Amino acid sequence: MRSLIRYTNPRSTGLLPSFDLMSRSPWSGVESELDRLFDTALSGLVAPVFDNHFPIDIYEDKENTYVRAELPGVNREDIKVEMVDGYLTVNASRKNLPADGKSEESFAFSRSVSIPDNVHADKVAAAYENGVLTVTLPKQEEAKPKKIAISVK
Q: For the chain, which residues make up each domain, given as ranges?
């Protein structure tokens, strides 16, 4: 059985406005959200908007937990994966040559996720293929009851 969790960069503003029925129109929250969406879309036409987070998928099977991140356009040598104090951190950078061809732009991305306690840290592996980073976190064997023979003296 596999379970999939999608983590994205959450926004602090919600789509449902909170309002006081006596003082504001119920549409004022919707209007401000639409204005914000159009402003964001228009600003993206002038200069691209880049976020320093990227979506990741976490899923597991009986033997492993997997963390998958899509990092298109990132070179393998520009990715760092670290596991420290119960967190898996992925850092990546990408360089873009703008349309003017004069100056190079550099973007850095980073994500940290909490990892389960039952991960065998010495056997963690990462692979990068076709713009997709997959980190495999092997699970430790659960403590199995062991029968102890009683000898006769």
A: 56-138
